[in-house]
């Protein structure tokens, strides 16, 4: 996979931490890994939001199905003794 040179700006505090904690030849890899984690988190957040929307959109239908299933499961068991 190829690499692309970018000129980016970082907050001074972040740049100091990067220089202090990461060797010069490893900095690009650390930044790339941080961005990958950021994008994965963002993708997961979007997926969760879509799932919540889907669940809310079908909530009433799902509740009706649960009621029907409960009725079918309990059918004939009212007179049973346990």
Describe this protein with a few key phrases:
82 residues; mainly alpha; 3 helices; 0% strand; rod-shaped
Question: What does this protein structure show overall?
Answer:
The model has no long low-confidence stretch (mean pLDDT 88). The longest helix has 31 residues, at 27-57. The protein has three helices and no strands. It has helices at 12-21, 27-57, 59-74. It is 70% helix and 0% strand. With 82 residues, the chain is mostly helical.
Can you summarize the main beta sheet? none
The percent range for helix content is 55-70%
What is the tally of beta strands? Answer: 0
How many angstroms does the end-to-end distance come to? 67 Å
Radius of gyration: 27 Å
Task: Summarize the helices and strands and which ones pair or pack.
Elements: H1 12-21, H2 27-57, H3 59-74
In short:
The protein is an all-alpha fold and 82 residues long.
């Amino acid at each position: 996979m190829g690499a692309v040179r970018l000129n980016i700006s970082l907050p001074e505090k972040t740049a100091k931490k990067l220089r202090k904690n990461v060797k010069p030849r490893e900095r690009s890899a650390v930044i790339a890994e941080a961005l990958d984690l950021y994008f994965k988190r963002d993708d997961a957040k979007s997926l969760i939001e879509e799932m919540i929307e889907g669940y809310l959109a079908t909530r009433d239908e799902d509740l009706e199905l649960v009621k029907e299933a409960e009725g079918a499961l309990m059918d004939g068991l009212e007179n049973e003794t346990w």
